[in-house]
Amino acid sequence: MRVKVSVIGCGYLGAVHAAAMASLGHEVVGVDVDEAKIAALRAGRPPFFEPGLADLLLGAQDKGSLDFTTDIADAAEARVHFVCVGTPQKPGEFAADVTYVDAAVDSLLPHLSPGAVVVGKSTVPVGTAARLAGLVQPSGAVLMWNPEFLREGHAVEDTLHPNRLVYGVPDGAAGETATAALDEVYAPMLAADTPRLVADYATAELVKTAANSFLATKISFINAMAELCEASGADVTMLADAIGMDDRIGRKFLNAGLGFGGGCLPKDIRAFMARAGELGADQAVAFLKEIDSINMRRRVRMVDIAREALGGSFIGKKVTILGAAFKPDSDDVRDSPALAVARLIGTQGGVVTVTDPEAVANASRAFPELTFVTDTTEALTGADAVLLLTEWKEYRDLDPAAVAGLVSGRVLVDGRNVLDPQQWRAAGWTYRALGRP
Ligand code: NAD
C-alpha cells in the first residue's frame, strides 16, 4: 500500500531514505532547511556522492512519487514522518547536539494530525525519544524510534536491504499503531524476511550506540595490536587473518590502518560516554575513552612513519596524499583521518598535495589552507613521498612501475594495508605501513 511519507532532513541519511521510500512505491516529500540541497534534489542531482543514489532519485521522480521542499507545511499530509536531521558533537564537548532534532520536531508539531506517526531515525542519546514523546502526544500523533545502520558508500543497498529493523515504541495501543504504520512503509523489506525487533524507546536508542561502540572497539582492538606488531616486528595483517578465522571473532572490521573517522563513529562513542556520565553509568563505557585514544594515536603514528621514511624531516618535501574522504565511495570529509594527517604534515613543514576521486570539493571547503588537485597523475608528479590514506579502488589498483615514473622519490606509506608490499618493493619502492615490518 502506498503511504504518504515525509523525511525531515535530507543529508547523507535523509536523502537516501527519501529516495528509497519512494522507490518502494510511497508518496514522499523530503524537507530540509538547506535551500541549495533542496534545489539540487529537486533537479534530480544528489547533493553528495553516494553510489546508486542518482539512479534511485531519477527513478523515483519519474514515477512522480518524490518531491523536495524547504517548507515543513508541505509535510502536513504525510501519515509517517521520518526525522533524519544531524546530531553532531557539540563544539568543545563530548555530548551530542540534539538541537536540530528538537527544532525538526518543533517545526513538525503544528502539522501533525491524530494517527500520524513521527519516526526518529537520527542517532540520539538514550532518553531523547521519551522526552520528545511528551511533546508529540498532545497532537494525537505517536512517536517511535527506528535507528538507522546504513554505511556511507553502501547507503542505497543498506537502506533497501537492512540486516535488521529496530522499532522503539511506547507501551499499549500507541505502540501498536506506530508498529503497524511502519510495517506498512517497510512492507517489501518485511516480505523479504528482514528481521524486525520491537523494543522500548531506550533499548532502540541504545542498539544504535552499542552497535557503533562495538564496531569502533573492533577497529581499535586491531589497531592496538598493530602498535604491538610495530614494537615487536610482527605483521598485523597476518595476525588479523589468523584471529579472524575464529568464527567467534570474524575477519570483518579487523583491518588495521589509519583508523575510523566520519560523521558517526567518533562522535557517537563520545556522545555515548557523555550520556552514560549523565546517567551515573560512566564506568560502564569508560573503555571507549581508550578506544578513541587508540584511534587518534594512529594518525600521529602515520605522520611519524612518513617522516622517518623521508629521512627524519618533512621540510621542503613534497608529500602526496591519496584520499580525502573518511572512507572510499563517499565524499564525506567529516573527521577524516586522511585530512587530519595532511594538516599535521603541513604544520611540520611538508608541502602537501591532497587528491581524491570525489571529495576534493568538500575537503577544500573544510581545509582551505591545504592544496588539492583532482587529477591523480598531477598529484603524484614530483612527489617525494606518497601516502595512501583512503582506500579507493583506483588507488588500490595503482601500478607501482607507472607511479615510479611520475614521482621524485619512491617512498610509499600504505595507511590502509591494501597494497601488496612485495610488488611495490620489487618496483624499487620503500614500502612502509602501519603494523607491518
Ligand atoms: P547530514 O548533516 O548529512 O544531514 C542532516 C540534514 O539535516 C542537513 O541537510 C541539514 O540541513 C538538515 N536539517 C538540520 N536541521 C533541520 C531542520 N530543523 N529541518 C529540516 N532539516 C534540517 O547528517 P547525516 O549524516 O545525514 O546524519 C543524520 C543523522 O543520522 C545523524 O544523527 C547521524 O548520526 C545519523 N546516521 C548517519 C549515518 C551516516 O552514515 N551518515 C548512518 C546512520 C545514522
TrEMBL record:
A Pfam family matched in the record: UDPG_MGDP_dh_C
The keyword NAD is assigned to this record: yes
UniProt entry tagged with the keyword NAD: yes
Catalyzed reaction equations: UDP-alpha-D-glucose + 2 NAD(+) + H2O = UDP-alpha-D-glucuronate + 2 NADH + 3 H(+)
Signal sequence, start to end: none
Pathway in which this enzyme or protein is active: Nucleotide-sugar biosynthesis; UDP-alpha-D-glucuronate biosynthesis; UDP-alpha-D-glucuronate from UDP-alpha-D-glucose: step 1/1
Span of domain UDP-glucose/GDP-mannose dehydrogenase C-terminal: 320-421
Top EC category: oxidoreductase
PANTHER family: UDP-GLUCOSE 6-DEHYDROGENASE TUAD
Name under which the protein is recorded: UDP-glucose 6-dehydrogenase
Taxonomic source organism: Brevibacterium metallidurans
Lineage: Bacteria, Bacillati, Actinomycetota, Actinomycetes, Micrococcales
